[in-house]
Amino acid sequence: MSLFEPEPLANLGDDGHRPLAERMRPATLEEFAGQQHILGPGKPLRVQIERDQLGSIILWGPPGVGKTTLARIIARMTHCDFIPFSAVLSGIKEIKAVMADAERNRRVGRRTLIFIDEIHRFNKAQQDAFLPYVERGDISLIGATTENPSFEVISALLSRTKVYMLKPLAEDEILTLLGRALPVLRIGASEDLLRQIATYANGDGRSAYNILELAAGASQNGELTRQAIEDTLQRKTLLYDKSGEEHFNLISALHKSVRSSDVDAALYWLGRMLESGEDRMYIARRLVRMAIEDIGLADPRALEQSIAAQQAVHFLGIPEGDLALAQVAIYLAVAPKSDASYQALNRVMEAVEQRVAEPVPFHLRNAPTGAMKQWGYGAGYQHAHKLEDALPDMECLPESLVGTRFYEPTNRGLEQRIAERLEEIRSRKRPKSDLPPR
C-alpha cells in the first residue's frame, strides 16, 4: 500500500455539503472557462494534452483561474494517478515517500502526475528533491504558483518545465460559470445581479462562486436578490450597466464636472464609476480626452499627468491605480480651461472640407533632384534657423487662405503667454500695409 493513495478523479455529483466551487469544478477542457490563449483549439498546450504528449509544466496565474482544475483534467485525460501536494504542508520526507511510489508505478506501467500547489513556497532543497524524478520521467510534474516562476522556482527545475501563464477570467467568462451554477443552487437570478458578482470577483472564478453561494443562501423564494448580494459583500451594489445608459450618464457627469472645475463633483462621479466596477482603462482614456479637449495648451502638463495616470493604472491595477485616477481628476478639474486647440482643429477641418485643395506652394516643396529644382521646387524658401530671430516672413498657407487664423488662444493659464508670443509672431509676418497707423 502506498503512503499516498492517488486522489480519485471521478465526478462526485451534486453534493450539497461541498463548496459550490468544488461541485462546479469542470471535468473536461470543453467545460473549462477561459485561458483560450493556451487552451483554444489548435493551441500548443491543448494539442499536447489531447495527444498525451505533455511534459512537466508550471501554471502561473492569479487565484481562482483554474490552475488546480486544469491539472485534474490533464490527469484524467492522460490516465495518470493524480497526487496533489501542498507546498505549505509537505516536506522532504513526504516528497521522498511519494517519489518512491511514483518510481514503482513507472516500473509496472502506471504513470503518476504530481500536482504541487503553491510551488513557490517550497525551498530550494525541497524543489531539488523533484529533479531526478522529473529527469527520468518517473513523474509528470505540474506546479501552480501565483508568483513569477523566474524568481520563485529554481533554475534547474525551471529549465525542465514549460511555464504557461494563466490570465484572470473575463467578466463574461465568470458570467458563464455563474449561469451554470444557478440550477445547482436551484435559484434564479437576473443578468444584472450576476454581472455585479462577476465585477466584484475581479477575475477570480472561485470568489464568484463563493459570493453566489452565500448570497443564494440569504435569498428567499428561489430568486437571488440585490439585498442578499449586498449583505454578502457587506457593501452597497450600485445600479450600473457598462454598455447602457447609466454608463454614459456617469462618464458625462464626470467630464462636465471636470470641465466646470468642480473638484468635489468630479471626485464623486469618479467614485461612483470605480465602485460600480467600471473598466479603469476606459476611465483613464476619458481623462486623457478631457486633458486634450478641455484644457489643452492652457496647461500642457495636463496631458502629461493624464498619460502618467493611465500608465500607473496599467502598471498597478486595482485598487492602487484608482488613486492615480483620483489624482489626475483633481488636477484636470483645477487646471485652467481652454478648448482653443480643439476649436482650431474644427476650423481647419471645416476649411479642408469646404475649400478647394490647393497645391502646396512651390517654396514649401522639397527638391531632391536637379530637375525639380529647375521646375521651381523650393525656390524662395527661407530656412528659419539661418535667420537671427528665426522668423521668416514667407507665407506657408495656400494663397486663398492667406491671413486666416485657425488658432485663437484664450487668456487663461499658459495660453495667455502663448497668445502674447503668437501676436508678436503674427505682427512680424503681417504685411506693412496691414499695420495700423501710428
Can you walk through the features of this model?
This protein is α/β, with parallel strands linked by helices and 438 residues long. The chain folds into 4 domains: 20-165, P-loop containing nucleotide triphosphate hydrolases (Rossmann fold), CATH 3.40.50; 187-233, no CATH class; 245-334, Zinc Finger, Delta Prime, domain 3; 360-431, Orthogonal Bundle (post-AAA+ oligomerization domain-like), CATH 1.10.3710. It is 50% helix and 6% strand.
Short précis:
This protein is α/β, with parallel strands linked by helices. Helices cover 50% and strands 6% of the residues.
Secondary-structure map:
Elements: H1 20-23, H2 36-39, H3 44-50, E1 57-60, H4 67-78, E2 81-86, H5 92-107, E3 112-117, H6 124-128, H7 131-136, E4 139-145, H8 149-152, H9 155-158, E5 162-165, H10 171-185, H11 191-201, H12 205-218, H13 226-233, H14 245-259, H15 263-275, H16 280-295, H17 301-316, H18 320-334, H19 340-354, H20 370-374, H21 414-429
Parallel strand pairs: 1-4, 1-5, 2-3, 3-4
Helix pairs in contact: 10-11, 10-12, 11-12, 12-13, 14-15, 14-16, 15-18, 16-17, 16-18, 17-18
CATH superfamily (homologous) name of the largest domain: P-loop containing nucleotide triphosphate hydrolases
DSSP strand tally:
5
- Cα end-to-end separation: 111 Å
The count of helical stretches stands at 21
Q: Which term fits the overall shape?
A: elongated
Q: What is the averaged pLDDT score?
A: 84
Q: How much strand content do the residues show?
A: 5-15%
